[in-house]
Design a protein that fits this description.
Helices cover 43% and strands 19% of the residues. By secondary structure, the protein is α+β, with helices and mostly antiparallel strands. Strands 3-2-1-4-5 form a 5-stranded antiparallel beta sheet, covered by helices on one side. Strand 2 and strand 3 form a beta hairpin. The relative contact order is 0.10. About 6% of the residues have low confidence. Keywords: ATP-binding, Cytoplasm, DNA damage, DNA recombination, DNA repair, DNA-binding, Helicase, Hydrolase, Nucleotide-binding. One of its GO terms (biological process) is DNA recombination. It is found in: Cytoplasm. This is Holliday junction branch migration complex subunit RuvA.
């Protein structure tokens, strides 16, 4: 099992990044590869998880250890595979997912791609009370005021993503610009305008 890989970011694709370590290019499937776009040519430390099944061996990479731990926990939920776990991490911060599960917030969980009511309920049943080991490195998780602000911003961003999809933009195009948007609490319209500006650059 690989704990992490430290190397030069060689290239970024819609599904993975390539990290050059000692002349070997490691293909790491990540929730949002484009967060590494600004690091091409630079050395980065990426936390890894190797997933093995009968027909494939895949190496997954994460910017933070908390992301990897949540990914591993999600794989234990019936109905969620690596692709589904990646989608959840691509659209939400680990702290948001942990909070939603601990508060049994099904309406928040079903907003993630591929997560219906049945899967959201299963996530809560399987993981509630088992994610607090992820929380110590997330000081804002239990700060109620900041959590409320973050949730509002998250809802507006999610609505902006849906609007962009309705306008005909692909998921790859949207995933590329979302990391470029500010984290402060903006309205849905403001997020859309900023995303559109980023797409035409």
């Amino acid at each position: 099992m690989y704990e992490y890989i430290k190397g030069i970011i060689d290239s970024v694709s819609p599904d993975y990044v390539v990290v050059d370590n000692g002349g070997i290019g490691y293909q790491l499937i990540t929730p949002n590869p484009y967060i590494f776009s600004k690091s091409i040519g630079e050395e980065r430390k990426i936390y890894t998880y190797q997933h093995v099944r009968e027909d494939m061996i895949a190496l997954y990479g994460f910017e933070a250890a908390e992301e990897r731990e949540l990914f591993k926990k999600l794989l234990n939920v019936s109905g969620i595979g690596p692709k589904g776990a990646l989608a959840i991490l691509a659209y939400g911060q680990p702290s948001q997912v942990v909070e939603a599960i601990e508060n049994e917030n099904e309406s928040f969980l079903v907003k993630f791609p591929g997560v219906g009511k049945k899967t959201a309920r299963q996530m809560i049943l399987d993981l509630k009370g088992k994610l607090l080991d992820i929380a110590p490195d997330m000081p804002n998780l239990f700060n109620q005021e900041k959590t409320i602000q973050k949730s509002a911003a998250s809802r507006n961003l999610e609505e902006a993503v849906l609007a962009l999809q309705a306008l005909g933009y692909s998921e790859k195009e949207i995933h590329k610009v979302v990391p470029q948007l500010p984290e402060e609490d903006l309205s849905t319209d403001e997020y859309i305008k900023l995303a559109l500006k980023a797409m035409v650059k």
